[in-house]
Amino acid sequence: MFNPKPTSKVVSFTLILLISLTFIHSTPTDQQDADDIDDLLALDEQEDNQPSQKPSSEADVLTKAQRIVLELNNDNTQKAIDGNEYVFVLGYAPWDVRSAELMPRFAEAAGCLNELNSHVLMAKVDAERYPKIASSLGVKGYPTLLLFVNGTSRPYTGGFSSEEIVIWVRKKTGTPIIRINSVDEANDFLKKHSMFAVGLFDKFEGPDYGEFVKAATTDNEVQFVETCTSQIAGILFPDVKSTSPVLGLVKSEPERYTSYEDAFEKDKILQFLDDNKFPLVTVLTEVNSVKVYASDKLQVYVFAEADEFDKLLEPFQTAARTFKSKIMFVFVDIKDDNLAKPFLTLFGREDSEDTLVTAFDYKTGAKYLLESDLTPSNIEEFGSGLLKGILPQFYKSQAIPDNKGADILTIVGKTFDDLVLSSSKNIVLEIHTPWCLNCETTTKQVEKLAKHFKGLENLVFAKIDASVNEHPKLEVEDYPTLLFYPASNKSNPIKLPTKSSSKDLAILINKYLKEPAHEEQHVTKDEL
Ligand SMILES: *[C@@H]1O[C@H](CO)[C@@H](O)[C@H](O)[C@H]1NC(C)=O
Ligand SMILES: *[C@@H]1O[C@H](CO)[C@@H](O)[C@H](O)[C@H]1NC(C)=O
Prior knowledge:
By secondary structure, this protein is α/β, with parallel strands linked by helices. It folds into four domains: 10-172, Glutaredoxin (3-Layer(aba) Sandwich), CATH 3.40.30; 177-276, Glutaredoxin; 281-388, Glutaredoxin (3-Layer(aba) Sandwich), CATH 3.40.30; 408-527, Glutaredoxin, CATH 3.40.30. Helices cover 34% and strands 19% of the residues. It has helices at 18-22, 57-67, 77-82, 97-115, 131-137, 162-172, 183-192, 207-218, 230-236, 266-276, 289-294, 306-322, 337-346, 376-388, 416-421, 439-452, 502-514; strands at residues 69-71, 86-92, 120-126, 144-149, 152-155, 177-179, 196-200, 223-227, 246-250, 257-259, 281-283, 298-304, 327-333, 356-361, 366-369, 408-411, 426-432, 459-465, 481-485, 494-496. It has a five-stranded mixed beta sheet with strand order 1-3-2-4-5, sandwiched between helices. Strands 6-8-7-9-10 form a five-stranded mixed beta sheet. α4 packs across α6, α7 (183-192) packs parallel to α9 (230-236) and α12 (306-322) packs across α14. The longest helix has 19 residues, at 97-115. The protein is elongated, with a radius of gyration of 30 Å. The site of one 2-acetamido-2-deoxy-beta-D-glucopyranose has 4 residues, from loops.
């Protein structure tokens, strides 16, 4: 049950304080009528811990939201699922950090949906306390969100803020679009929403409108609104042209208004949203990270301190305009370890606070580093090189070491070509990392072997630390790995067994020194 889903690459602890709020004491109940959502009080699994605690006012609000979330148990689950057209279920574990982050947002969404008179029963199941119930519902990890429609579940595909949860649930339960009927409603809507798609139609019918509705239902995160008066449309989307139908996307940033210019077809509308929904430069947060990582666009990441980023925002916005819909630009606060560290490690910069501009092509797994000054033209060149696929890929390398007099050569990313692939010698290469379990034993063996073979002109012993050095021709999964590169053919190194004795290794190396390499590929320890 440890499968992390949704898959946030990084875990945040910032919301851990809210754990205490999500388990606020509330009145335990017996079985209740599942049709009456308001009467379904959450059972509190921790009631014994805080028997007489007076809730604070903030806690009051959450308790109220909690109350409209049904706590599923052995008695009420079947009735709840069978007796309601829509049930939205959160599967969680009390100790799970990401469950704890999501629960207050889920509760807030439940409160909001309740106010909107949504016909969705919001429910949660403690998968640790009721493992059978959880697994019968299809909860396979923490946290899991599932929407049951007439008893059949579908996975959650929306965002993870409370607002995004509300939008998604409404989309999938019969209210994909909010209709705005008056100027007041429009102004009110603007106060609550900063990002939405607005449609202006003469009548709410016909093929164009049908495609608009289909797009609103299929999309997972953008709130759609509709109106049939251009006055109201003009409040929401000042760029509105007089001829309907009109579709526009509104965001809270410099590129606030984007007009849709194409034919009203569901797939084209969805593509338009996909190309335009992110800001010019997206600031990465715990909440939007899942969405950002899910994008398969080329991505340029800027790692900088917030002050520094303020200065860089404009040139990057300019670049983002140039590469709109093709490259996503993302800013990460370099001081936010949870978000920044995993990326910085990829570039060997985990201990640096200097501004770093990188790029990723998730389709090929390639990573790139902008090494020139951050001038607008260099940024633009970086973007266009990325787009054309002509940027040199980044490989980590330590500084070139002095190997003078060394029995065992230290190889780094930058010297792998010269000292291994282009060398005229046979090479025995040890690939190690600082944290690997058996590397030390192998290192000692290699030292012994180097001594044993000392003076042999055509054989060189070498080692490389794979945690800080990379090369496209060096792809190893286990550490330590010992490779024999025959002088005659460097393209197919032979794997040496790391678990045999030094003596056996010496015999093997002698054999390879005499025999043509291609007959002896991929020797494993089983063959010894
Ligand atoms: C759920 O079932 C009811 C009763 O059969 C039906 O009227 C309703 O349309 C169904 N809802 C969905 C979303 O299929
Ligand atoms: C080197 O080994 C590879 C893989 O077995 C083989 O395809 C290639 O022909 C060899 N090259 C030479 C020069 O023997």
